[in-house]
Amino acid sequence: MTAELPIAITPGDPAGIGPEIVARAFRDAPQDLRGCFVAGEPATLRRAAQCISAAGDTSLPVAVIASASEVAGLPPRCLPVLPLPGLPGPLPYGQVSAEAGRAAAECVVWAARAALRGEIAALVTAPLHKEALFAAGVDYPGHTELLQAEAARHHGVPLQKMPVRMMLANDELRTVLVSIHVSLRQALDAVTRENVLRTLRITHTALARSLGRTPRIGVAGLNPHAGEGGLFGREELDAIAPAIADARAEGIDAVGPFAPDTIFMRARHTPQRAGEFDVVLAMYHDQGLIPVKYLGVDKGVNVTLGLPLVRTSPDHGTAFDIAGQGIADAGSLVEAVREARRLVRG
């Protein structure tokens, strides 16, 4: 992958805000979106462009391209779309449907395979709707798992040989998750010495590459007060602390486990105070994502670590309740594009 190759953007669920935030990003941040194109369905993107111009804003022409290489010759403030075969035209806003779920997944699969073949530099994915995916018979709960399966298939290895993790990041905080889209009960069971150590390795490798130095990793405990010496649970003693010791023996700068109700404040970077850690390792989905999203979803970016490709995404969902109104904020998508460029160059 090189910085000269184009970046593919997938429009997400066509019934949600994905297409319109993609259109808004191309219109309002043309310099950031140079060298990007959308893999999707042209009529859906035209509708999105019309949606954001309904209030009298500057129009956005849609340029249908035959190959990703055509992007370099296009002017700014247009929306390049590479049509994918078999996708439905515009679907009703705000409605969960198997047709929408299938269309969204097919765009992601196409972009993932193009990235794995080295035809694009990275992919940036607008939000999927998990119920729509399920209705379409897609056997993955989200982007992370779908991309993991495509990468494993491409390299001819079992799924467990392609471990991936989710990182949520903004200007102030990064957090990586030990488990992703599973129930809380399953997430608790996933806090094992092996899983925590594997997550530390993936985090160390990915951030060392992007930061250009050894990252400082702060590890959150699972239980209140990080277990209080075993009074509130033994996961810290039996799994988390041993995994940290294993990681440190490998040269990974990991410390903890620390109380989960304070570690994120300690890691937060502000103009007044540098954080103690470059990233926090969180034990489950909501533990890690709530602090990042509380700081503002307009700047949050989702990065999949461990893949043999660069993938980023906005830090929000499909927002069916406001889809089609032309009011969705494209800030997080623009940040995802910027982060994808940084990762490609890094």
TrEMBL record:
Record GO terms (molecular function): 4-hydroxythreonine-4-phosphate dehydrogenase activity
EC category: oxidoreductase
Pfam families: PdxA
Keyword DNA-binding: no
Source domain of life: Bacteria
Record carries keyword Nucleotide-binding: no
NCBIfam families in the cross-refs: pdxA (TIGR00557)
Protein name: 4-hydroxythreonine-4-phosphate dehydrogenase
Organism of this sequence: Paracidovorax wautersii
Lineage of origin: Bacteria, Pseudomonadati, Pseudomonadota, Betaproteobacteria, Burkholderiales
